[in-house]
Amino acid sequence: MRFKKTCFACIIILICFLTYLHFANRDILYVALGDSLAAGQNPYGEIGYGYTDGIADYLKSEGKLKLFVKEYAVSGYTAKDVKADILNNKSVSIDGKEYNIRLLLREANLVTISLGANDFMKGLSVQNLNLDNLALYQEKIKDSLNNVRVSFSEIAKYAKCKVIVLGYYNPFPILFTVNEKAVDAIFQYADEEYRSLCEEYSFEYISFYQTFKENTDFLPNPFDIHPNALGYAKMSSMVIDYFLK
Q: In whole angstroms, what is the distance from residue 115 CA to residue 126 CA?
């Protein structure tokens, strides 16, 4: 009799555990942090449907989305802006309810970050690229990633979930026809350095460098760094695949 009771108890525990596994990830709080890429800015300066929206809609379609917070993704944001939001514990109103960023990061199941491009790209354009001075751009990249490092330190204090960082890509594919090797060297260096930084914080890193290099149609405006709907859709799918691994 004791053996039967023990077996029955084990079966009940197993059922409860399997039920937990089934529903454990069905209430995902997704927080998007970062700049205009996270906000979904298109190649013509309009904020619209970006990769973060695609991720949120997928989770919603699977019945897994509890809350999607995009209010901390702002066009023009630098790494210092994200840091300031956390230090000031910035609050936002979503559907009439107030949330603060520290609490959201603590409770998040997924955080995505697009950050550092504005730090690096400041003062940089197609017209003033000096492709003969690679060291100059390497220093700019290092400086911008030092800013990102400080922001990552603040994020890591609160976010204990899977944090996925979206990497850089070459935003000026038109320049491949001018000096492909020089442009490759600049953005490959940025890609590698960014990946190394993410490893310091155990953040997941997704590289988009090669993807955008092979799909220059993702960037239809040669004087704007933002992807079109196809580019954002590809970014969404790559993050979703990574998140579900």
A: 21
